[in-house]
Amino acid sequence: MPDHPKSFFLSPDISEYLVRHGTPPDELQARLIAETRELGPIAGMQVSPEQGAFMTVLARLIDARRALEVGTFTGYSALCLARGLPDDGCLVCCDVNEAWTAIGRRYWAEAGVAGKIDRRGHVAGHAG
Fold it and tell me: What's the predicted TM-score (pTM) here?
C-alpha cells in the first residue's frame, strides 16, 4: 500500500479501508500497473486501482454506452471504463503520446475490450 492516498480528498484511514475492502486489480491490471511503474516518476499519472474499480462500477450503474477520456496515458483507466461499457459501447480516448497508449493497446486487446476503444491521437489544427 502506498504511504499516502493517491487522492488528496481521502484521509489515509479511508484510503486504507477502500484498498482493504475494495476490488483489487486482477492479474491483467496488476501487470499494466507494474509496466507503467517501470516508466519512473511519470507513472504517478495513472489512476489508482480503487479509482479504476469505481470507474468500472460507475459506467455500469449509469448504463453508459459512450464515454470520453482526455489523457489516456498507459490505458489503465480506459481499460476500467471499457470493461464497464456494454459490448456495443464506445470509449473515445484522446492522447497525443502514441508510445504511452501503445502500452495500453496491448492490455486492451488481451482484455477483449480493444473493439470498444477509439483512440484519437491528435487534434485538428494542432501541430503536435
Answer: 0.86
